[in-house]
Amino acid sequence: MNTVKKRHMVPYLFILPAFIIHACIVTGPALSTLVMSLFDWNGMGNAKFIGFKNFSEIFKDPLVKLSVVHNIQWLLIFITVPLILGFIVAIIVSQLRRSQMFFRTIYFIPYVISAAVAGKIWTAYMNPYYGFNQVFAKAGWTELSKVLWLGNPKIALFAVAFVDNWHWWGFIMVLFLGALQQVDPTLYEAARVDGANRFQELIHVSIPGIKQTIAFVLIMTIMWSFLTFDYVYIMTNGGPANATEIMSTYIYKNAFVKYRAGYANALCVIQSGICVILYFLQKYISKKGGMEDE
Amino acid sequence: MKNMKKFLALCLTGAMAVSMAACGSSGDDKAAGEDDKQTESTAKTDDDKDAKDSKDKEKLVISCYLADDNQVAVREKYIDEPLKEAFPDVDIEIKMYSDRQSLQVEVAGGGGPDILDLDGPTDVAEFAKADRVLDLGKYADQYGWKDMFYDWAYNSCFYNEKLYSLPTFFEGMVMYYNMDVMKENGWEVPKTQDELVELMKKIQEKGIIPIAFGNSNYQGAVDWLYSTFTSCYGGPKAVKAAMEGTGKYTDEPIKESIQTMVDWWQEGWLGDKASQSITNEDMVAFFAEGRAAMMIDGTWASNQLIATYPDCNWDSEMMPQKEDIGEILPFATGGGYSINANSKNPDLAAEVLNYLFTSLDRHYQSINEAGYQPYPLKEFDIAKLEGMDEKLLDQYKLLMDAQKNNQIGYCSWTFYPSEMRVYMNENTDALFLGSLTVDDYLAQAQTYIDTAIADNTIPVLP
């Protein structure tokens, strides 16, 4: 082997360990999920090959449709509320000098609290007998005090999404804040010299300056919205009456409650397929919209 | 520098290969590795000083649920230590699992404990379907288990005409009354369904929740309700006929009983129309603190009431009867011991199981002193429990009397096909909230019975 070839091999040797790990703990199980989706399997015994029957059942299963609709609702909430809130607060906090670290920390704290703990705490807050409702009742807000935040199928999903937002937006804010601090200050000076006001600075300097961060946050939000599990599982477990059922909780129930691991694998494949489609869709739109480089 | 890079690359690759090889080892090493990885805490019956000896002993692992320190201490006294004395040549380990999934995954991977403590016949059936638990027929003949247990409990452990588990304890659904609330308001314990309805109206007028119920942390708790209503107000005959194929689950008596349950929920008598917002723990707390006057719960709740709410003055009775049906107590076997098909010592595991069910002095002591639930054994003598907590004793007498007088109803976690139970657990809230009709609910439930009858996997009802 000549020296040039040897030199080319060295980087591959360095990435080989990571590649092997990835192949063993990501690629292998992912492929096995794909294979097992073609089997009737209860998660323990011998699997029976049934071709695409699981997939045909998925398209007839009303709970799958309901779960996907809930995931889309979840996505719409998370693609707007925490992003707008995080962005606005990041802009405000970025203007602060002395107390910036304080606010950054305060807003970031919910993100470091585990979902299990936060979910349980908020479930207690939303308890109609000893939670916020009691405060509302004492304040004389009778109608509000009767709301079953997690028990009313019409609002349970939004109640859980509110809690996940509470946990999530601080992280988005910190990402935006970090990006805003990377924007070249001379661009703002130039804008001011040209007579731009604060709003124009925001539109023409800040947003273009952090467009790649916005694109990153968008893509992560879209995918995480379809993969979310923890808060729903902890706070409502998909209830009441499937009102908060999402793909992940439905997959979990099929795998471990209904002992339908083969069907759960097929659902995982569909879920991954949706994520991949959304990923490319978002990439395409971002590029067309100038959020990412062509 | 170039050589250094090559050297580093080779070292890293070598280290990687070695670590992968270590992860991929088989046999005992693998099992040991799995043990290390277990996040569940493990309690060994052997003391540290015996560790050396235990290496030479036969090993037997028994699974159990995760428990707090007090429960572990009680278990050590009434199970671990007696086992250690009875089997001095065996290294018996009681391994705690935080949830069913970890045990399921371990067993599916070809490992797992020798003796599996499962959730009852419907749970055992899933392990049996996958050939992960042994047919205990051979051991039943050897140890005479058929004659030891009450027929209803023993027969419930069959799946596809084979015995796959032994019932670890039995329980029933009863109505609890907060006697302080009842006395303060001059209310009598109702004897009939009509009296109960009248009482619930009065209780609600007083601003008290008639019957506490909550399932926000465990949706499946609705099976306590539909098991109780179908058995007590639909009648055990109708349920049995449906399961045996001579009737349908959509028949009028069952339909009426489910409709009654839905009506009571919608009246606010059952769970104050907020059961999806409160937990099981809230439900017990509401009852114990007098926010609710009654509670439909299993006999297992008595221990919780005694331990957590010692000042609560409660009583428990069978559900107030429907006249043409009489008093019924829905029964269940609360758990089942099975032997793992992967066990290297199935004979020893069977011997240990036989010891657990035949060491009655130990068992009486565990019930008397630690509130353990009784095994459904024919030889069980309630007189041996004299001196224990009176309320508990009354409840055990209630269970025994119902059993003796054939007032047996059917709890879903013992007597329903598992798919049917999963469906009903997931959809009963939809009935309450009006997004599913009783007819559709029962028609769907019936399809699972039809499938189970066709597959010959329908549970045996006494």
Automatic annotation (TrEMBL), chain A:
Source species: Blautia parvula
Signal peptide stretch: none
Protein's name in the database: Sugar ABC transporter permease
Limits of the ABC transmembrane type-1 domain: 68-282
Listed transmembrane segments: 12-39, 72-93, 105-125, 155-180, 214-234, 262-281
Topology with respect to the bilayer: Multi-pass membrane protein
CDD domains, A to Z: TM_PBP2
PANTHER family: ABC TRANSPORTER PERMEASE PROTEIN (PTHR30193), INNER MEMBRANE ABC TRANSPORTER PERMEASE PROTEIN YCJO (PTHR30193:SF37)
InterPro entries: ABC_transporter_permease, MetI-like, MetI-like_sf
Compartments, as annotated in UniProt: Cell membrane
Pfam families linked: BPD_transp_1 (PF00528)
Family to which the UniProt record says this protein belongs: Belongs to the binding-protein-dependent transport system permease family.
Keywords: Cell membrane, Membrane, Transmembrane, Transmembrane helix, Transport
